[in-house]
Amino acid sequence: MRGDATPRARPDSAPRRGEVVGAEREHLRGGFGRLVRRERVAVGLLQVDLAELIATDRTAISRLEAGRVRPTSSMCRRLSRALRTGCGEREVLALEVALHEAAGASLRGVTDRTRRRRDRLDAVALAAARSSGGDPYTNHLLNLLEQQRD
């Protein structure tokens, strides 16, 4: 019968769409995932707590820490702000840069639509940070992030 068809099982060797495998997964787990976990534990957050702070679910944090998915620039930004709550912009930006570096070539690209939205938000944030009389270190980090975005 057609209506009683059971879902086909996925072969064990076939990764799910968007899932990272092999050496890239090990690289992400050992670098990006380890950094996120270390920072999360250092501030006393559970995965579910961090997920709530960045408006996602616990499994998204689990997958990032395990290196099973590629992080985005947006996710790096959200993580750094959540993990550095109450800190100055310098500390937030330093963690964001560290997350970008840990992700390396695995940092996932964004679509044109999300890029335009992100660029508008970044322009506002950069203008606010620069107009607040940021110190040279903060300005240097802002310039690096701006260059990486281009």
TrEMBL record:
It comes from the Bacteria. SUPFAM superfamilies: lambda repressor-like DNA-binding domains (SSF47413). InterPro entries: Cro/C1-type_HTH, Lambda_DNA-bd_dom_sf. GO terms for molecular function: DNA binding. This is Helix-turn-helix domain-containing protein. It comes from Lentzea alba. Gene3D superfamilies: lambda repressor-like DNA-binding domains (1.10.260.40). Residues 36-83 form the HTH cro/C1-type domain. Coiled coil: none annotated. SMART domains: HTH_XRE. Residues 1-22 are annotated as: Disordered. Pfam families: HTH_3. CDD domains: HTH_XRE.
